[in-house]
Amino acid sequence: VDRNMKMEMNMRNMNLKMSMNKKKKKKVKLKGGGAIKKKKKSSVKINQEGNSDATMGDGMASPPKLLKTPMSGTVFTHGNIFKIEALRDVRIVGLRIKAFSKSPVTVSVYTHKGLYSAGRIDQNDWRRVLHTKQFLPHRSKYPNPLPRFEKPLVIRAMTIQSFYVYSSGNIMMCTYGVSESSVIARNTDMRVFGGLLTSKSRFNSKPAKDYAWNGVIQYRTVGRVVGMGRPPRRMSTSHKPTWRMRPTRRPRTGAPTLGATTSTTSETTPLTTSRVSESTSSYSTSTTTT
User: Fold this and answer.
1) DSSP letters spanning 23-92
2) pTM listed for this prediction
């Protein structure tokens, strides 16, 4: 009995030591008594332009779509006016501009429903959707992202929306020699046209023609593409169909059709004549015998 008791005690001690060793391997202790924690990998991806997806979004999990214009501009300006034609319902969430400055500037974005006026810029025709201070575009090679709009701008399909990007400094870059009617960027969702160049005075000034804006439009699609047709309609399996197949009715036997009446009359007439002839012949034979 004593031997069995001693063996059980030894087995328990061995199990306790094994469990303690496993716990010690999981934690690596330092001199101060702390434990090393593994660094978590960040889920934010960096794109080729150096901008993270977190700065591109509008509060949603997936990043918005991008439409990039040519970045070959070398002319510096205070502002640009351009128009967008939506081919389907889209929601504009922000812009990126090609600019460079060594000191912070103030940037504002205005919008106008429909086509802008090529004459003097009237403040009453434009509505501000973004106003940011202390904006520092430190990269001239890639477009610099502006903060997202205060409220996403919805553009309906087959409509035109005008934009006016203005900065307090002569920092934005644009391309000269592009007419207002020429398309500088397009995809299946929208088209971007050339525009105008504005001076230091924000409003009440006449802009210069044939200047194309350099930047990127951040947007999300809403609805279906115009001209692609409606998707096929699916029938619900929960409800039974209202129509039913009805069998064709057979004609009644007691009521013959029009064709049957004519045939019966044609068939019955010779029968009556034959019967009359038979009766007359029998009558004549009877008279001769008498």
Assistant:
1) HHHHS-B-TTS-B--PPPPP---B-TTS-BGGGT-SSSSSPPEEEE------EEESEEEEEEEESEEEEE
2) 0.59
